[in-house]
Amino acid sequence: MKYISTRGQAPELSFEDAMLTGLARDGGLYVPEDVPTLTKAEIADMAGLSYEEIAYRVMRPFVGDSFGDDEFRGLIQKAYAGFAHDARAPLKQLAPNHFLLELFHGPTLAFKDFAMQLIGQMFQAALTKRGQRIVIVGATSGDTGSAAIEAFKGLDNVDVFIMFPEGRVSEVQRRQMTTPSENNVHALAVKGDFDDCQARLKDMFNDHAFRDEVGLAGVNSINWGRVLAQVVYYFSSAVSLGAPHREVSFTVPTGNFGDIFAGYIAKKMGLPIKELVIATNQNDILHRTMETGAYTKEGVSPSISPSMDIQVSSNFERALFDAYGRDGDAIRSVMNDLSESGSFSISQGAMEALREQFTSGRVSEEETSETIKDMLTRTGEVLCPHSAIGARIGDANLSEVPMITLATAHPAKFPAAVKDACGVDVGLPAHMADLFERSERVTPVANDLTALTSLIRERLKK
Ligand SMILES: *Cc1c(COP(=O)(O)O)cnc(C)c1O
């Protein structure tokens, strides 16, 4: 299995190299050259299996010879052993034909653990074999950072630096990043917003001298390994509702387009998905793009669903690549327009291809709070703001096909917003009950490439 860049000018890589590299050297994103498919019988056989076994069957064809069969099974077992629910990704019913896929039973209470815990295991195995050290740098709107730190803290062959926008993450999110005491963990509070953090991360990767000097690796949602791990729960949930004999639809609270792109891959692999619905908050670049065909950056307005406060949706480039018939030149040209003018327009053909795969909706701040309250009344479930955005758009798209809405975080991660909306105080689960008593370690840093690279070089000398 070979991986190619969406911009057509980086070398083809194996699964292992694509995973360890993150962003391609031409600025593009790695995608599989061909998406493997599963037969109807293979999908039907997944009924009743453990999450781990479904994970193995879904991901195995993408991994090639990077890991042996037993080795890969072992990595999957270890990745999900720390989850607080036997089903890993349990389904709950919200209404007739509307289901909630709970993806928040991992160690940091957000769906990011599904990918990050597995990536941690895969990185460790690959690096040990190679006798190599790397530096992971990540940008986070809140949940990626804590999930990465949780997955990589204390590992011998990795240092992990996480940039988060100072003052723009919830207190629980911040403390999850600043309280681990392992000295390979470095939390950096950047003076800027999430898009600034993401832009500086791209700058670092494009600084090839720095990249090679420190052995830079990325685990942001553009990492193919992460997208792949997320494909699994589309299968596990759809199969438990009757796939492949019955179609299902999904609504996905979306920021960087990673999670919903995993759904698109599941569909390409043969899972019968009718609709993939993009749910955005007031930072609605994806919804506007679907409506108008123009991808136009605006400023980020901070919301009560901070993990979706994004205006440059990195993984969208992967969907565009397919929509443009896998034409790397076309992608280079639109991405160039984006960096020069903050905007690009999508060709009519590509827009038709996108609209065939995705629909979209947007939820305001007021509607988000309203939905948290309404869902508590109608179902007894307390949803986090991101999941509430999904549930509202899911409700609006109900049909004869079961709708599965992804619940992307535990409400305890966003206690203030949840309390304001419905009056409920959600406590932290037992394993992190003392989070507010632990001491914090964080380095403030300017929104500037040189400031960041010198800081990282300094830290690595110690
Ligand atoms: C990261 C995140 C999202 C957005 O996921 P993408 O893959 O970036 O679209 C939504 N909700 C929560 C809670 C998140 O942490």
Automatic annotation (TrEMBL):
Keywords on record: Amino-acid biosynthesis, Lyase, Pyridoxal phosphate, Threonine biosynthesis
Modified residues (N6-(pyridoxal phosphate)lysine): K112
This protein's pathway: Amino-acid biosynthesis; L-threonine biosynthesis; L-threonine from L-aspartate: step 5/5
Annotated transmembrane regions: none
InterPro entries for the chain: Ser/Thr_deHydtase_PyrdxlP-BS, Thr_synth_N, Thr_synth_N_sf, Thr_synthase-like, Threonine_Synthase, TrpB-like_PALP, TrpB-like_PALP_sf
Domain Threonine synthase N-terminal: residue ranges: 2-80
PROSITE patterns for the chain: DEHYDRATASE_SER_THR
Residue ranges of domain Tryptophan synthase beta chain-like PALP in the record: 101-334
Top-rank taxon: Bacteria
MF terms (GO), sorted A to Z: pyridoxal phosphate binding; threonine synthase activity
Cofactor(s), names only, from the UniProt record: pyridoxal 5'-phosphate
Gene3D superfamilies reported for this sequence: 3.40.50.1100, Threonine synthase, N-terminal domain
Signal sequence region: none
Reaction equation(s) it catalyzes: O-phospho-L-homoserine + H2O = L-threonine + phosphate
Documented EC number(s): 4.2.3.1
GO biological process, one term: threonine biosynthetic process
Family: Belongs to the threonine synthase family.
NCBIfam families named in the record: thrC
Name assigned to this protein: Threonine synthase
Originating organism: Halocynthiibacter styelae
